[in-house]
Specification:
The chain is α+β, with helices and mostly antiparallel strands and about 140 residues long. The chain has three helices and six strands, in the order E-E-E-H-E-E-H-H-E. It is elongated.
Length: about 140
Amino acid sequence: MSGNTNKANIKYAGDGFFIGIPPSGHAQIMDSKGDRHAAPTPMEMLLVSVAACTAIDVQSILAKKRQDVTDYNVEIEGERADDHPRKFIKFHVHHIVHGRGVSDKAVADAIKLSDDTYCSVAATVKPTAEITTSYEIIEVAEART
């Protein structure tokens, strides 16, 4: 074993609510009754986690490449199997980068680095789910001085 072990705690809070406490200590409420929409379900959190992991990577890589990114958004769609355990079988991640003179190559390379090397959440789900990506770059006007 690598010694790189993480530990979390999940506590039942009643009425289908659970409180998850990750290693950081920042509690997250989860709702087992997805139709209630009172808090995210674990599957919704997984969907967000895939998008957040790659977003963090891509934003960091673009900053290191000195790209003038003024806004950045990631949209994700996940397709689940019809039969139980209704796992995710497919994700599509769409990156939307706003900026000034942002290089197409820089964005493509950043996404590839995240997908192939850095995003541990994607690496965790890839054995059982296909992940596809796309991106668009939206040029914004120069800032007025």
